[in-house]
Design a protein that fits this description.
Elements: E1 2-11, H1 13-26, E2 35-41, E3 45-48, H2 59-64, E4 68-71, E5 79-81, E6 84-92, H3 98-116, E7 121-122, E8 150-152, E9 155-165, E10 168-176, H4 193-206, H5 210-214, H6 220-235, E11 238-241, H7 245-259
Helix pairs in contact: 1-7, 3-6
Length: 260
């Protein structure tokens, strides 16, 4: 079985989200190979779930610090993207539910982590904070865990979100390489200052980073190769590597069509 592999490297948030949406929108489940894309963010960025409130955040401070803030096409809560590897998978649903696709893709992600030496596992049950999404502690994505998400000894190390486009599934998520994701509390709006301190403690208790587990730094490049190898092993697939410059042309073409 063939898959497409794309490493688009480091790009601004809007570009990254435009690529995911464009690839998903153009995907033909009946004829296209599944796609695994890996990428990162430059500058650092905060991404919000499609239905999350923008006013949870101090937009003036975000702008002053040169941080991007973008809205993801998928659900879930906010993520501060800095020292991480972000992946996206575009695949046919094939009559599977959202949870079944999560479970299917978790197999590949787990194998990636095992290659790196991280004995992660899949969360066995949904965690229910009081009020869950209504609770201010749930503003960051990594403060909550749900079934089929990846954890290390009960602490979240990969967070993922999903959207369905007809028979196409877009799933993307973040592997935490270092602790920078906790910077999200610095950019909460002034009305959330007390909440920010609680979230700091919450994230420290409930999340873990790859470099903490491994006891050494982990680069984007090493994580990328582990993702590629993990998916190859898990799905017995052969990757066809796509030219990342084609993404530049594709996004430029999409934007031009929207303007015209």
């Amino acid at each position: 079985m063939n898959w497409s592999f794309i490493d688009t490297g480091f790009h601004p948030g809007r570009w990254n989200m435009a690529v995911d949406e464009t690839l998903a929108g153009r995907f033909d489940p009946a004829g296209d190979f599944p796609i695994l894309r890996v990428y990162a963010w430059k500058p650092n960025a905060i991404s919000l779930g499609v239905h999350q409130r923008m006013d949870d955040f101090d937009l003036d401070r975000i702008q002053r610090d040169g941080i991007d803030i973008v809205r993801r096409p998928t659900g879930g809560r906010a993520i501060y993207h800095a020292h991480e590897l972000t992946y996206s998978v575009i695949i046919g649903a094939e009559n599977r539910s959202a949870r079944e696709v999560y479970q299917y893709l978790s197999k590949g992600i787990l194998e990636c982590l095992h290659i790196l030496g991280i004995d992660a596992s899949v969360a066995g049950s949904d965690e229910r904070l009081p009020g869950m999404l209504e609770n201010p502690l749930a503003i960051p994505c990594f403060s909550t865990s749900t079934r089929s998400e990846i954890q290390w000894h009960g602490k979240k190390i990969v967070g993922s979100a999903q959207r369905r486009y007809g028979d196409t599934i877009l799933q993307h998520g973040s592997l935490l390489l270092g602790p920078a994701h906790r910077m999200i509390t610095h950019y909460l709006s002034s009305r959330n200052h007390e909440v920010a301190r609680a979230i700091d403690r919450h994230l420290l208790e409930r999340t873990i980073e790859a470099e903490m587990v491994l006891g050494r730094p982990l680069s984007f490049d090493e994580a990328r190769e582990a993702f590629r190898a993990g998916f190859e092993r898990s799905y017995d697939c052969t990757f066809i590597t796509a030219d990342p410059t084609e993404m530049e042309e594709l996004i430029h073409s999409e934007q031009s069509q929207r303007v015209s």
